[in-house]
Design a protein that fits this description.
The chain is an alpha/beta fold. Helix content is about 30%, strand content about 20%. The relative contact order is 0.18. InterPro entries: Aldolase_TIM, PRAI_dom, RibuloseP-bd_barrel, TrpF_fam.
């Protein structure tokens, strides 16, 4: 299957339950995504408080925000001990600069939401503006709900981009389409999974996630902890 040497990192987003987070830590998931968007069905503060999130010992804790006030993002990041901030809304470069002043040690992931019909030149221009300021990029399927669609976008557009920064891929990723991801010219640094691996919003299907981990890490004899 594809490139046997390619083993992307894995981000599981939309986490809400401590027991599931602990199991994912044991299985070696690289990034744990917590959604701080109150309109999301996976809004983490409906299930965990900031102190509980701060107690999770992991170097890849990602806070997902959508057009939130910079001061609030900074406050939550400090209280929850987040390592990454994922900007999933319409945040501009000035916003990122203000955030970096407040949180110089925190990595910024800038999301680009891609619809089924995309102007590649416009997208290239937008990306080149942000690459200087963001630490990582993330490409997701466009939706009014800001993610969690379970649907892919036209991935062929990614091979037309000349990216200077590593990127995460999100939107409809599953065991069924991992082979096509492995054929990309510029492969994702990490895969971001969410709704395809849930029983219901925020309640992850740990068996499916472990199967996916075994698949992307090319483990023929799984030794998963789940």
């Amino acid at each position: 299957m594809g490139n046997q040497n390619y083993q992307p990192k894995l981000k599981v987003c939309g986490l809400a339950h401590r027991s599931q987070i602990q199991e994912l830590q044991k299985s070696g998931v690289d990034f744990l995504g917590f959604i701080f968007y109150p309109k999301s069905p996976r809004y983490v503060l409906n299930h965990l408080n900031l102190e509980q999130i701060s107690e999770i010992k992991h170097l890849g804790k990602v806070g997902v925000f959508v057009n939130e006030d910079v001061a609030i993002v900074s406050d939550i990041t400090k209280q929850a001990h987040l390592n990454y901030i994922q900007l999933h809304g319409d945040e501009n470069i000035e916003y990122i600069l203000n955030l970096k002043k407040l949180l110089p040690e925190t990595q910024i992931i800038k999301v680009f939401r891609i619809g089924q019909e995309v102007n590649t030149e416009v997208l290239k221009s937008k990306i080149s503006e942000f690459e200087t300021y963001a630490d990582l990029l993330l490409f997701d399927t466009d939706s009014k709900a800001y993610g969690g669609t379970g649907e892919t976008f036209n991935w062929s557009v990614l091979d037309q981009l000349d990216l200077q920064k590593p990127y995460l891929l999100s939107g409809g990723i599953s065991s069924e389409n991992i082979a096509s991801i492995e054929s990309f010219k510029t492969k994702p640094f990490a895969l971001d999974i969410n709704s395809k691996f849930e029983n219901s919003p925020g309640d992850k299907n740990l068996d499916k996630i472990q199967e996916f981990i075994n698949l992307i890490r090319k483990q023929k004899n799984p030794k998963g902890m789940l």
